[in-house]
Amino acid sequence: MRRLLIARLFVLASLLLAPGLVCHGQGGTPMSVKQFLKLSSSDTTLCVLTGVVQKVRSSTSGSFYLEDETGTVLIYGLADVARPELSFKQLDIVQGDTVTVRGRYYVYNGTTIEMKDGRLLAKSDGPDHNLSFMDRLDRKPRFKGKEGDEALQAFSHWVAEHLVYPRECYEDCITGRVLVSFVVGRNGKVQEVQVLKGVHPLLDEEAVRVVKASPKWKPAKMDGNPVRITYRLPVIFRINN
After folding, report:
1. Could you give the CA distance from residue 30 to residue 160 in angstroms, rounded to a whole number?
2. Which among 71, 100, 189, 202 could bridge 33 via Cys, Cβ 3.0 to 4.6 Å?
3. Could you tell me the CA-to-CA distances from 59 to 24, 115, 122, 241 in Å, in that order?
4. What does the DSSP 8-state code read for residue 217?
């Protein structure tokens, strides 16, 4: 047991001194996930775990799964030990990052073992850390069976088919491109439609109306959870001869 503890302390020290690792002062007992999971509900030991982020369950609550060679455990309510005012999103933790966290054993609802209100001691970016948000997605938004850029193109065709040219603008030969932004929400509904660059109040209003009338999309997913995606779309008004 003494040799195992010394070995784990050596591994932890190596991780904390690794290049590119963000590190803060710490205290607590280093242990494996397996050892942590075997603690009793009455144990108040301040534990230190090091592992790889396998899945971010909620960026709002700061919960994710941490895995080492012995098992996987849920970390809930993580904050930075030196700057607890930062949100979980500001910590910039994504799947594949290596992190060291400190906290105590907790059993939620009598069934779920977790480290509650853990504190981030160190973080090293994983190989996928610098991927764009869209590239991290498990699934991009889908519209009428199309995904990603093809979905946006299919939606652009749908919008064009459902535009009603305002008579006043048609008679005055007012044409142009209305640039709108919209969000495909976690429920797949199009929401928060805004005009970024308008042409004429009546054309702007029609562009917003049609985009808002969109059928439901299949939302994007990241780490198995639906996420919001913001798009920009040019809505073109032209008069065909």
Report:
1. 60
2. 71
3. 22, 16, 18, 52
4. P
Determine, yes or no, domain membership for 130: no
Assess contact for 75 and 103: CB atoms under 8 A.
Answer: yes
Distance between CA atoms of 228 and 101, rounded to whole angstroms?
28
pTM of the model: 0.57
- What is the pLDDT, as a whole number, of residue 63? 92
Report the DSSP beta bridge partners of residue 237.
176
Domain range holding 167? 137-237
Q: Give the other-Cβ count within 10 Å of 40's Cβ.
A: 8
| Same structural domain, 207 and 153 | yes
Domain boundary among 71, 98, 124: 124
Same domain, 91 and 174: no
Amino acid present at 162: H
Q: Are 15 and 100 in contact (CB under 8 A)?
A: yes
3-class SS at 236? strand
